[in-house]
Design a protein that fits this description.
The chain is mainly alpha-helical. 79% of the residues lie in helices and 0% in strands. The protein has helices at 2-21, 23-48, 52-60, 69-82, 86-96, 103-116, 120-132, 138-153.
Amino acid sequence: TSALVGAWPALRAALVRGMEANPPAAAADTAGFMGAVEGVTRARLQGAQGDPAAGYRTLLTVPRQVGTSLDQDWLLADLAFKAGQWRDAIAIYEGMSRNPGRRTLSKFRLGQAYEAAGDTAQALDAYRAVLSRTVDSSPEFLLDDKAREAVARLGG
């Protein structure tokens, strides 16, 4: 995030130059971005209103936007999980667990998805991965406690 903040002035200048050089393309990019924002908002609302399956289906149709794709991934995985689409949720959480900044939470959610899908061995592996991580913030301490509880519950 700090790298992006530091690079923002140069990125903004490049965006402005691109928009000035090609106004029709800039308008199309803006429309695409606004459509994505609308789609994400709709999917989030559907999930909040108790229909995660509809939110999941909606979000599958939304174009991924640079700078927001990680948030879209989180929402997509969470909606898939809530809709009982375990394999889809697992695949998304697996991919997100490769991101160092999101690894611990992704691994924990991966454990939950494997557990819900009935794959105890994979769930235990994911929960143990949470426990093996160096904890450096209070939310992760809570995940440690929850992961320990899950390992004990699953007999690992």
